[in-house]
Design a protein that fits this description.
13 helices, alpha/beta
Amino acid sequence: MQAAISLPSAPQAGAAMSATTSAATPAANAAQPPLLAVRDVGLEFRTRSGTVHALQGVNLQLRKGEIVGLVGESGSGKSVLSYALLGISDAAARVTSGSAVFGGIDLFGPAMAGLRGREIAMIFQSPRTALNPIRPVGLQIEDVLRRHAVALRGRTGPDLALGMRERAVQALREVGIADPERRARAYPFELSGGMCQRVMIAIALACRPSLLIADEPTTGLDVTTQAAVMDLITGLARERHMATLFITHDLALAAAYCDRIVVMHAGHAVESAPTAALFAAPRHPYTARLMASTPGPTSTLASLAPVPGQLPDLRRDDLPACRFVERCDRATPACRLSLPPLDAGAERAVACWHPLGSEAVAPPTLPTGAGTSANMAAALPCATGDAHV
């Protein structure tokens, strides 16, 4: 399999922004303590058809001013993780292990309610679904400002309401909406998809959060509008030194705009690396397969190699430690029983016993003739069924 993968070129505006903003990221950023530290997080959904083990042993770090892409095919757990971090998971969801710490505060504790929307904000996939269809967009921005008691010095009563309206109009102006005073009175159905997404960005950034989670913010937009929205998000993130978690399955966008990328597969974080290093030489077999299935400028149908098989059924009680094992041509029996931990604090890390490249990890040694799960379990200290990814 190729080590270096050619991806489709991002729009010129996006590529230019990427080159500019990547250079603006300080090299010392990696030495900063993480603003967000996700450690060994597990989450499951209890449903009528069984328990869905949606996340297991997820490790991830995000530093101030850093833009991290979270990539993987649909169903890999990207959005589930973001909802868990914000405390807006489905009622059937339950965090089973691990911690998520933001600026020293436990996001799985009661303090999360005071941070959501103020210190941590989110841009959702579908702006037309997320926006209130019967309320002008300007008032929806004012709602956020009032909810988090944004202070306006020296203003009370009618002056306070006027100040809120001015702040809402300014928020629309900052995201590049023309004639913001008039647009603030518009309803979502009166705006285009791109403008609705800009309104969502204005709502998310109204309180100037320290962390922005953008969950597929360009879904349903044409290529030109995608570039404009991504330029806007990354430009404001750099300007405000705001940490950004960009969730996408579009590898070209991730390559063009992110400083670092974390790859997810079936609820596991399997690889983490700086963007250039990851695309030059992917280490995890799944990452390489994912890139090989992505069309590039010179790709032909014959040259594309789809990822074999399907995601495992996460309701299974016998899920292997590595959930890619049934799709991987490098797998060994040891892969079913344990995984090397993914060091989220390292510059580059991979959760695989047999990574691509020369730095292969030695898997646990199995006794001669070991062929049953019981024999392998006895030989492996980590063979408990819990993967520390």
